[in-house]
Design brief:
By secondary structure, the protein is an alpha/beta fold. It has 2 domains: 2-108 and 302-324, ornithine cyclodeaminase, domain 1, CATH 3.30.1780.10; 115-299, Rossmann fold. The chain is built from 11 helices and 16 strands. Strands 1, 2, 3, 4, 5, 6, 7 and 16 form an 8-stranded mixed β-sheet that branches. The chain is globular, with a radius of gyration of 19 Å. It starts with a strand and ends with a strand.
Length: 327
């Protein structure tokens, strides 16, 4: 029998601290060569501005599965639905038997926050206390939650083109993270004075000017995930020590990297390392406190499988979900 887990089940079974640990371990497995993860397949639906992604992976330790995720930016305004919808099918690694089918909308937001938490743990200055966030959606919520899980954050600033949404975000995240969260007066206000900067927006063009950055800042860029879109300008990328979640994936999907390469501003060797190299200790996250460090995430199936396995194991232990059979 397999388990069917809905969104409420996943929310009740998953917390950020454990998701960060699961994702960190998955990157260690990747560094050790115990992950099989082909490039995800992307299907574009131009008539509806949609994107359909299929993301399979095997992660050493037993995780095997596939996530199917859709990204439809017009959903909130046109259909009152989330931009991102997803499911994960989890298999038994020994037999291939399907063991769980679960909602992965919330899980996607958590695992993307978790990978930024891992990157922040290894790349941000130890004394980081402030965060500037671009975007005020669900993804931005888990981003700040993850940064707070690995650093003693005292205050955050949020910038969004929709000021009302930014105000709602500030109120919600102040209560959730027990820190002061204020609305930025401008994009520059969300950069200046921030130890960590997070871009988790739906923007297709850069959201701030790289000349505003100062030594010591760390950036997590997670919003853009196609070759023609980017949240960061070329100046930001040139000035930063660049770490990719997976270099091969970013060279195909990350406009933050692809566009500056096309401009001739950088070469492919501007990628300092993949996150697996940083987590394994092969490459330090930063050389000095004066470095500007940049983590670029396009999202990897190993994150989904690792977190889905965590959710599945907890569901079995707690008697959560509903059993069903495919036969």
């Amino acid at each position: 029998m397999a388990l069917l887990l809905n969104r409420k089940d996943v929310v009740n079974l998953l917390n950020m601290a454990d998701a960060i640990s699961a994702v960190e371990e998955a990157f260690r497995e990747l560094a050790a060569g115990r992950v099989d993860m082909p490039q995800r397949a992307a299907v574009h639906v131009p008539a509806h501005r949609g994107l359909h992604l299929s993301m399979p992976a095997w992660v050493g330790g037993g995780g095997l599965g596939i996530k199917v995720v859709t990204v439809y930016p017009d959903n909130p305004s046109k259909h009152h639905m989330p931009t991102v919808l997803a499911i994960v099918l989890l298999n038994d690694a020994e037999t291939g038997r399907p063991v769980a089918l679960m909602d992965a909308g919330y899980m996607t937001a958590v695992r993307t926050g978790a990978v930024s938490g891992v990157a922040t743990k290894y790349m941000a200055r130890a004394g980081a206390r402030t965060v500037g966030v671009f975007g005020a959606g669900v993804q931005a919520e888990t981003q700040i939650e993850a940064v707070c899980a690995v650093r003693r954050i005292e205050a955050a600033t949020v910038y969004d083109v929709d000021e009302g949404r930014a105000k709602d975000y500030a109120s919600k995240m102040s209560a959730r993270c027990s820190i002061a969260v204020r609305v930025a007066s401008s994009a520059r206000d969300a950069v200046e004075g921030q130890d960590v900067i997070v871009t988790a927006s739906t923007a297709r063009e850069p959201v701030f000017d790289g000349s505003w950055l100062v030594p010591g800042q760390h950036i997590n860029a997670v919003g853009a995930h196609t070759s023609s879109t980017r949240e960061l300008d070329t100046r930001t990328v040139v000035r930063s020590l660049f770490v990719a979640d997976l270099p091969e994936a970013c060279l195909v999907e990350a406009g933050e990297l692809i566009i500056p390469i096309a401009e001739g501003a950088i070469g492919r060797d501007h990628i300092r390392a993949g996150l697996a190299d940083v987590v394994s200790g092969a490459t330090p996250g930063r050389e000095t406190d004066a470095d500007i460090t940049l983590f670029k995430s396009v999202g990897l199936a190993l994150q989904d499988v690792a977190v889905a396995r965590l959710v599945y194991d907890r569901a079995r232990s707690n008697g959560a979900g509903r059993e069903f059979s495919f036969s």
